[in-house]
Amino acid sequence: MTPPNLTPAASASHRHEQPQLPEEKVIMMNKYPLIADHGLIGDLQTTALVAIDGTLDWFCSPRFDSPSIFASLLDTENGGHFSTRPREQTFATKQLYMPDTAILITRFLTEAGVGELMDFMPITGTDTRQEHRLVRLVRCVRGRMSFDIEVAPRFDYGRQSHELSVSDAGAVFDAGDTRLSLSAIREEDDERLGRNGSTDEGGLRIVLDLAEGQMRGVVLETGPDVAPTLMTPVQAQRLADDTAHFWQDWLSQSTYTGRWREELERSAITLKLLTYAPTGGLVAAPTAGLPEEVGGERNWDYRFTWIRDGSFSVHALARMGFTDEAVAFSQWLLDRITERREGATYPLDIMYRVDGSTDLHEEVLTDWKGYRDSYPVRIGNEAAGQLQLDIYGEALDAVYYLDGLGVEIGQPGWLAVCDLLEWLTEHWDQPEEGIWETRGGRKDFTYGRLMCWVAFDRAIRLATSHGRPAPLERWVAERDAIYKQIMEKGWSGERQAFVQQYGENVLDASLLKMPQVGFVSPLDPMWQSTLRAMDAELVSDSLVYRYDPSASPDGLRGSEGTFSLCTFLYVDALARSSRLDDARLTFQKMLTYANHVGLYSEEIGATGEQIGNFPQAFTHLALIDAAITLNDRLDAAQKGRLHRPDTGRESR
Fold first, then answer.
1. Residues 409, 335: Cα–Cα separation, whole Å
2. CA–CA gap between residue 361 and residue 582 (Å, rounded)
3. Is the omega angle on the peptide bond into residue 615 within 30 degrees of 0, that is, cis?
4. Three-state DSSP class for 347?
5. pLDDT digits (tens, 9 = 90+) for 49-81
6. How many Cβ atoms are within 10 Å of 465's Cβ, its own excluded?
7. Contact at 8 Å (CB) between 56 and 49?
8. DSSP H or E segment with residue 179
9. Bridge partners of 492?
């Protein structure tokens, strides 16, 4: 294979010289990178993770939920990888995004020189595609450098063998139904600057020797019929420029001009990357099996669309001005509400695949060790069949919110809403698995009842504001009955707080949503008392646990970290409760737990390490909501319109 050769384009490379939020690390060839030591790239139908040492160690194609091709993040021996790094064993790295884009840049600093790796995926658009491209450009910035490139795919979670063929244009890894091609980026008359050879396990190794200013690259493409094709430097630069312009143009739609703008925009780009463009479905995270406790069994597949997460994203994206994405998900949601599947147990499942299908059979990859021996590695998710009553409130709240923005549902949608409420009327008062998807049996969770209250309340508001036909007397009666039940059974006189489940005194951070959805006033004494109880039990120096598993067993062994989502819900609740100093300090502390490019996993461990699936959509949408709420309250306070009461509590 003739290594690629690309003349550097000043307009592109000069923009990379000013890094955003750079992170420098010395790399010593660790077996598993930290979860946080990754950046995310994608094309709006799938994504890839790139570690700070230049290893692409997670990639599924053609969709987020497709079988993996590279997955050394979960098993270094059997997962497969695509590494690009200096030949020297010790080097420092800096990783950053090209400003306002999802183009990732990894810089290598060695004694011999400075190198740069640019990773991006050209945008595929809204048409379903089997073919997806990933571009890796390698450049010597200063001095002279040699790079080792190793491409070692493992198709279908390492279960499918493949054959390798190499030509002057590149290489093909053929696994039958799936192929991966590797195309060289070079001029036709390029000098041969590298050496290549195959490995015993069907991989390909390339060595590039580059002088200052030289740039080479490869294009990886997946699909049933892909083949290597020589790409010229001009074509490669056009791809990079087009991708950058897409992201910059998309981000220019943002209407947010308040505090923490860069953090919110990075979160918005991340949510866009996690959205499947053909349907508008938002995956909870692009990964599977990353542990909530290193070495533990809490390892789940998050590559699906949860009703809950997607519904919350409507608020976050619309508040920033990204109404197209909010509307796209609302259409996905309405499709789920209006479809009537024969034999379905409930009107809605809690999660679906991005195309709306419901086959989420859970299985264990028995040959994989898991991230840092966190076994089992699961694909699929059997929690899909659980009863979680809160999803009906979250869905109706999203529909109601968009209605306020002028996006109304039609007659078929309204009839489906009425059918949903008819079912909920008969079924809201029963035990369930709850928002945290516990596997220890059904219980009467307060949060589930709270969101059932929201479902009836929002449906009543929609009916009255548009004059829609509806059994309003019955809906009002059900809404009020839920309210009374929560006040009587969801309140603990002993704890002086709203609690996780009826008959117990366990606190739960999900109830931080109570003032946000309008169930209680944020200044109500009952809520203020609840918030103080959470301060004392669930909050650890700004980080928030979702609940105490030892006090409320969830059917799983081991412990977990603090939930980043819950910390941002806490910030929102503090701001609404006029504890602005506490809210601002908590928010600023939480920002320090982001990784070097502004991304968050699901949880933060005891040492500050990011754990769980990465990056998590729920965390990033909660960051946006919390920041906007806090920003608005701070602005109002500066203008003297917001009372800031003395809580009798020292700021953290």
1. 11
2. 44
3. yes
4. coil
5. 999 999 999 999 999 999 999 999 999 999 999
6. 12
7. yes
8. strand 179-185
9. 497
